[in-house]
Amino acid sequence: MIGLYILGAVLLFGAFKFLRGVYFIRKAKALEAEIGALNAGTEAVEAEEKAEKAAAVVALGFVPESELDTENPAPVPPERTAVLDAVRSGDWEAAAAYIEGAGQDWQERMERVRPLALAAAEDDAWLLAWRAARPSDPTAALVDADTAIMVAWNVRGGQSGSRTTQEQFRLFRDLLVRAQETAHEAQRLADPADPTPYIVEQPIGQGLGYSHERYRELWAQVVQRDPKVLWSHISGLQYWCRKWRGSHELALAFARESAAVGQPGDLLSLLPLIAYFEQETYEDDLAAETYFKEPEIVAAVDAALLDLAAAGDAHPGAPRMRHMLAYLLFWQDRDEQAVEQFRHVDGYIGALPWSYAGEPKRRYLYARDWAVGVATPGL
Amino acid sequence: MGASLRALRALVLLAGFYLLGVVLLAALAGADYAVITWLGGPIVLKLLIVSVVLAIPIVRGLFMLRTPKGEPPAGVTVTEAQEPLLWQAVRDVAQQVGTRAPDEIVLIDEVNAAVAEDAKLLGLRPGTRRLYLGLPLMTGLDEMQLRAVLAHEMGHYANFDTRLTPLIARGRAQLIRTIAHFHERADKKVAKEQAKQEKKDEKRIAKGKEAKGVDTTGEGATYRAMAKIYTAYGNFYLRATRSASRRQELAADLAAVRVAGRDAAASALRELNVLDSAHDFYMSSYATLGVGAGLLPRPGEIFGGLRRLLDARSADLEDLRRELPTEPTSPYDSHPALAERVARIEALPDDGRGGQAAPAALALLSDADAALAALERVVLTPEALALKRVDWEDLVHESMTLYVGRGAEEIREAFAAEGAGPGLAALLDAVDADPAVRWRIADRFPKSEEAAAATGRAAREFTRPVLRRALNQLVTVELTARGAARWQLSWSDSAALRYGADDFEDQLELALDAAVADRPDTESLRKLVLAP
Q1: How far apart are CA A51 and CA B423, in angstroms?
Q2: Could you count the other beta carbons within 10 Å of the beta carbon of residue B420?
Q3: How far is the C-alpha of B36 from the C-alpha of B380, rounded, in Å?
Q4: For position B338, what pLDDT does the model report?
């Protein structure tokens, strides 16, 4: 009988503990729900403020988020649009004429080759027809080589090494080797003064992992033909970056050398800016708001501003320069100057530094709206 | 520790297992008694059922008294009159080790040598001793190495180990089975619950609601808890016997060194490591290569071919000899890791018996080829024995031709479905007429996720190698059918296709490239393959 009392007491005590537990759990859940509601409220208020600010910025004449073009760094010239339409219907002669229209302006030549190569990576019937019709046309070979690089990257995909399959790696390599053959063919066919068949080999060397020695030989081929093609310098800097075959030091040294080669108006002072930006992107422990304010980076931005003033908007590389400047000026708290750059490039953000962000529009709007907010009294 | 003391401990440990079962049953019975006396109502019945359910595996564990008799390995029993040299060697070794020679020698088809004794009275009285000796093992060893292996095995006899082994093994097997039983029940319960929840989810989906997802955490927890009790005892059991079994293994290694010399004993262990994987590889890639085509090598070659493989790949196998596993094969294995055993042996002082070439172990047999053939007749199934026997060269060529031909059937179907077939000539005509037919054909082959997602020229680049492989396969079929190419056996490499002319392979590569290029050229392929 005593045992029964003890058992009863134990059961009662257990029941009490259990019910108390249930009570506390319910209370905690109620509190959690309350916190959730409060957070949601704060978020809603913040989102509303943000939307209001965005609307105010748009009211000042800036492009709204939904209309931002993330493909191009600047408005596409109508002539290029027409040529892209023409090739889609098989008219390769339009492409040939368009690229040759750049003449000896090698930067412009590359600016015209790339969009056609991107188009050919999707549909290359016109390019095959062009190659068949004019087997020894250096321009066709150049576009073909650049197309092969675009296709190689499409095959590889943008995932990290561990998420890229063996099939993708193997094809990537095979395709780059074929691109290399085509680039060498273009080099044989082209005008000896034309550096673009060598410039097109630069990303191939990067993907195939040329040794420093071999890459320097290729670089010598480029600069002996024209030492100041912005495209080739930007491409070369990628090779020397830590994420590819170099280091932060090698990349910065290369960029400074490039800047030293350029005269005001050549826009080669863009190179150090990219080198700093690449380093900041690579190193997680570098904070943009302090790192970009270092005196040497402020000085590099000043030099680039002078360079840009000398170049004017006629230089095909000017939009790329302005995008980079806008971002760095924003981090350097030089918001009025940043806004000036934003005004020039607003609407077209297919360029560094935005394209490296997971959400390019978000990075762009964050910088632009902030700078505009600071620079506009009463906003 | 003497033999009888070890026997006593083995007995005590085994008794402990039964004791554990009895104690657990008593605990359940006690709990039931308490429930019945103090509680009333339907809860009593429920609790009783739970205790009965838990008691079932314990009782089953208790009554699985006899370890199931392992089927003795199939083999050929050889008498002293049949194999005098082998028997002599075995007797020599037994004498040197200081134990009675086995009563029977059975040749088997494994990379293994083992002694077994039908011990009586829980292993306290001797019974018939059998030596199971693997012919694949003998194939890879020289005579001194074989003596080392035999000495190791018989070293266990000398220490009375083999008679105790059944006792220890029984305790071990009992524990493992009881634990497995509890886990099995727990898993079943989880599976049941999962099926139940999945069904619920299906119903929810059918009703247009969102699925709840399946959560089976906590299911079968009581079973797992019981298993844990037994696992704990099992670990205690292993710890208690492991150091002794390790000591026995190392003592047996010392016996091997005494009999065969330090170097032969160490190299025998290294060779064992090589032979295991070489034999597995040989059996799957050579001996049974033709089975799918209904072919086997000539009598005696099924196990005998290993000799050729070992000769041809001796350089490749050198790495396996040098790098030994440092982990025991399983937690229940009584052998210390091979690397440790070899290191202990090689650390012994030089006994001056190394460096002497010994004849191959198979030379101990009066007729090795006959023995290998006799073994086949015993271990192969009647179906396998009925297969056609051919020379190695023909086996490789005929089976590879058949396999490639079968693989090509699907390819032909894909080509034919696009109106480009059935033969290679018809296909090339179709390509000339419309190069794009190639990409439509390739779309019919299975492709990777990435390839399926690709568009434009990237999609074509994913497809090109697939198409090229398919085309190459058709070419192979065409050439082998005409006798212009032949699959060549290689003991040191995988089978390869050999073409008539030396530079044919390079030309074929170029011709295949041209046929799958964006602007196809089928001419060179026609000339190479279809021209008479």
Answers
A1: 67
A2: 22
A3: 61
A4: 82
Report the chain B residue with the minimal C-alpha distance to residue A149.
B458
CA distance B370 to B365: 9
Whole-number Å distance between alpha carbons of B258 and B251: 11
Q: How many CA atoms lie within 13 A of B216 on its CB side?
A: 16
Q: Using 50, 70 and 90 to split pLDDT, how confident is the model at B433?
A: confident
> Are B365 and B85 within 8 A, CB to CB?
yes
User: Could you tell me the end-to-end alpha-carbon distance of chain B, in angstroms, rounded to an integer?
Assistant: 82
B461 vs A123, A128, A151: nearest CB: A151
Length of chain B, please? Answer: 532
- Distance from chain centroid for Cα B222: 35
Spatial contact of B495 and B475, defined as CB atoms under 8 Å apart: no
Q: What is the pLDDT of residue B172?
A: 64
Q: How confident is the model at residue B492 (pLDDT cuts 50, 70, 90)?
A: confident
Q: Which residues of A touch B458 (CB under 8 A)?
A: 121, 151, 154-155
Total number of residues shown for chain A: 379
Cβ of A155 within 8 Å of Cβ of B458? The answer is yes
Tell the burial category of B396 from Cβ atoms under 10 Å away from its Cβ (0-12, 13-18, 19+): buried
Q: What is the ipTM of this complex?
A: 0.76
List of chain A residues whose C-beta atoms are within 8 Å of the C-beta of residue B514: none
What's the one-letter identity of residue B340? E
Structure tokens at A124: 């290359």
Report CB contact under 8 Å: B461, A155. yes
To 10 degrees, what angle do helices B42-63 and B161-206 make?
140
Lowest mean pLDDT, pick from A275-284, B101-110, B206-215:
B206-215
- Contact assignment for A120 to B457 by CB distance below 8 Å: yes
User: Which member of B39, B450, B457 has the closest CB to residue A124?
Assistant: B457
The answer to whether A127 touches A140, Cβ cutoff 8 Å, is yes
Q: HEC string of A302-345? A: HHHHHHHHHHCCCCCCHHHHHHHHHHHHHHCCCHHHHHHHHHHH
**Cβ(A45)–Cβ(A325) below 8 Å:** no
Q: What is the DSSP letter of B391?
A: -
User: How many CB atoms lie under 10 A from the CB of residue B211?
Assistant: 13
pLDDT in tens, B287-307: 999 998 899 999 889 998 999
Which of A63, A130, A132 has the alpha carbon at shortest distance from A99? A130
Using a CB–CB cutoff of 8 Å, tell me whether A124 touches chain B. yes
CA of A122 vs chain B CAs: smallest distance (Å): 4
**Residue segments in chain A with a per-residue pLDDT below the cut of 70:** 1-8, 10-11, 14
